[in-house]
User: Fold these one by one.
Assistant:
Number 1:
Amino acid sequence: MTIRLSLFCFLFPQSHIIQAYNPPGKVYQQQYAKLWQLRLSEVNEGLKGAESAHIKGLQLFAEIYIRENSDIYEKKLPEFQAQIKILKADPSPFSQTAHAELTMMQAALRLKFNQYMKAGFDFWSGYRKAKSNFKDFPDYPPAKMMWGIIEAGLGSLPEHIQSYLSIIGFSGDVEVGLEMLHKALQTTKTGEWNYAYPLMGLAYVSAKVQLDNDQNISLKSIGLNPSQSPILTAIEAKILFDRSQAEAAYNLLENRKGHPNEIPFPYLFYLQGRMGVTLQNPKGNKMLELYLLANEGQLFIKSSHRYLWWHYHLKGNDQKAEHHRKKILEEGTTETGPDQLAQYEANKRLNKHLLIARLTFDRGEFRKCLSHLTAKKADEVCQSDEEKGEYYYRMGRCLQSLGNRNPAINRYKQSIEKYGDLETFERSNALLQMGLLQEKNGNCEDAISQFKAVTSFSGFPFSEGQHQKAKAGIRRCKKQK
């Protein structure tokens, strides 16, 4: 929830969406372009009033959120709150919608720095303000767009959370939100609002990937150049990597030329290091070590040590491998899925046969991965039912990627059987992938059954994302019935 809320707040600032009245001035647009490139020291020059307050708020949010430094947060928060007060005092639709957005951003910052009660209050306040804005300005596109984003975000939550939130007045609908994003995307494609197209493209692509399980869309596919912004670069690289295109993702990061005045964005080092280890690129471990040095916060620390653990294990350096395994248990937090997974795996033995299979698959070498797996039987390389579950799971992933649907389903069934009652990402994803395959085969009843089974599991890394994709599958299947 923390990551999604933060992305929604940062990626969808209201004045970057088509307004029915006057677009932001040229100076504002120039400052916004610099902000998008994280050239924070250059923004908010020559602006005044609501436009200045909005840009300043975005600037402060970006600095606090990216740096993840609690001292910076405490120092900058009063200035951020001052921008909210300026916007709150102006009754215009522009300012009132910006007021709601910065309030949501404040909730995201509270969550990042573990101020959960205050975050809940800010989110509730922002939600109510956005709802009243939509009621008061129903024909004002920024107010309508913000409400659409909230609709999509809340509608994507697991059913049990939605049921609880409905008691206190929260509700959402993914399809309504996606439709609003699509309309905004089309409106910004040309004309005087075209400067906002990268933002709307990122918003739409992110939502389609995360909330609708769209496996074909990307930033590049809608005409954007990911290299124009470090944020676009990070999102596109992550999309490529998740689709087993590790080399393309790594090259995107490696070849990007940043502006000399942009603030450091250590997350790019983490991504490149993770992908470099997958590719067994000699720069992989160096980028992870650079991330550990440059990062001011606690996120992805455990995950970085996890990939360094893998790197040195494969290199045969047992001393360094063990050093990083221990660091997983000693440093960082478990606020993110990758860090949770690292913590979980650090308490188990590292199965080299399965690790090689995982990395080979992530490189997109599906036949090679399958050959590696089947070179030895599960009983020969696995010491527990959990490892056997992973063995068959990875075999299913290979077969699925090679287009062998029914054999893949059979391997997923074997995987689930071996996992038993153990709730893991792999078990959940085996069910999800079975549902997707059954959907492609036209067996909607079976697909819905698998998707519903996914939503019955929780408490493992990435469970929220799995639930979102399963719910999207259920929606698609019900439309076909």
Number 2:
Amino acid sequence: MFNLRRYVAKPLVLFFWLITGLRLLAQDVEISGGVSEGKYPEPKPPRVLPNLPVVREISHPDKGRIIRMQRVEDPGYIKPEPKVAVQPGIDDEAFWASLSDEQKADIEAMDNALVFSLSATVVDHRATKLQWRHDGEIYEAWSNVDFNHLTGFTLFKLDGRYYDPYFGIGNVSSEIEGADIWPGKIPAFSTKEPTFILVEGDASDAAAIEGVEALHALYRVEHERLKTAYEKRKQARIERQRYLKANPPRPKDVRIQFWKRDAVKNTTEEESR
């Protein structure tokens, strides 16, 4: 079968570098909100319920725990008046006037954020096959970046513009070469710098490849930080699995309290607990 990609891939790559290579050499990038290192939050302290007199209790076992239904005496809670909090909006003149020029520019940049999605298949943690759509057209590219590293954050900013990527990641081994899920042969990259080779799609459409370009620009600057954070998340998952295996969680008993109130009285703050 005639394979068009075999004959057009190299010209596409050359053209891509001619129009974008120089522009990506030096760019200002910033990850908003930091990068997750897989630290689990401290458990919240258990909620302390008031000791209400129990009128009647029904309990039954359920998968290793006890569920208790308790009718209690009316505690006489008074329903508070609802508080209506008026939050100033972006269009509120007083609120807008209170912002600094930097804050205003940041809000305007958020309005212009590029939201995009990708499918990423990582092979042996050494290359990633990317697939995405733009204006109904399918785009495919090979990246020499392990896209597992490009996780653990939500937004990033590049040269004043925000980017909000969404992508699903799968990992495969070269041992499955030839299987249905095999993404294809990894091309030879001419550089070790983070880059990608477009194998399907219009390389001259800057809007179509902007998100992918931005991710690689981010990785050029933050690759050590992103890689280190990924390794910490991976280690945290291993330690968490090890802990749960040694300390399997046990079902906790459940207590549900309710009470009866005459309709003529004020309604309760909590009708059930």
Number 3:
Amino acid sequence: MLLSLLAICCFYIACKKVLYPDDGSHSLWVVGTPLQGYGSLFHTIDDGFLWERQGIPSLMPEISLTGICASSPTDVWMVGSSLDEYGFILFSSDGGYSLTRVCDKTLFGNITFLVVHAKQTNRVWVGGSNSNLVCTSNHGITWSKILLDTLPPVNFNGITTKGDDSIWVIGNHVSPSDSLPPILLASFDGGTTWQSQPVDTLIGHRLVSIISVNDTTLWLATESALLCSTDRGFSWVTKHQVDVGTITGIAAQNIKNVWAVSSQGAIVSSTNAGANWIERRPFNNRIPLTGIITKGSNLIWVIGGDTLPGSQGVIYYSRNDGQTWFNQEFPGSPPLHAITCLEVKE
């Protein structure tokens, strides 16, 4: 009898590995609104089947974490703001278990940091309010402020890179304008020089997210449209107009496969470079979604949560390219803002 059960278990594991070869092999972190008096940071090493809370209350009192990026299984970067709206940057060298505050208002004044990107070799980029774009190449010991001609003031809310030379940064004017286009800046020499890229057709629109998939191809999200460039951002083609709420995040593995989430709980995706789109709504929910990340050919995580007091957050997971979804549980379930993912072997 025991041998029969063992054989069944081995058969199940073997079949699971064939059907879901990447299952359980990813490490993820998510961040969100404060829970029980301090910032929310959660981590999993098994695709999200078990989440644990991380963080140090004394470093994150009433702090809302808005961005996170892991550059290795140990090095994790986070940004956010406190109740009195000053920004800070946190770094962990042990996968999120201990944290160091590497930048706060004593360095750059009373600003809010919105996004962090740590995918270049020994270089981390952080974007924030009032045209603040900062960079470190020594794990936050010193920071350089990138001086950019972006008057009037801009809030930088998206950064993507390809290799160590190509960097794209998006932003929106602090004072909304129906006569000015949003900002898209690019550097192709590692951040030494910068140039504006043409987004004049997007006057009156707000940029949400940008992601590079190879040396020439990028996807860009406004609040209502998804656009693609195949020439490093010098020209853009609108691929989809969204009418299911405001777009809040995008993810793409290549030019063909792209995903986006909306403020009304919808998930849209294309497998043919935007020629056709499919809309999904896990569990028929309309909970606002705030972020999405994909790995491999079929793994997807989606996060969200309402901003209303007392609202809870969600983590949806699919391991078959969005055909079916799991609602993952995590401690306290506060609304979530950002997600990052690494393969365990990384």
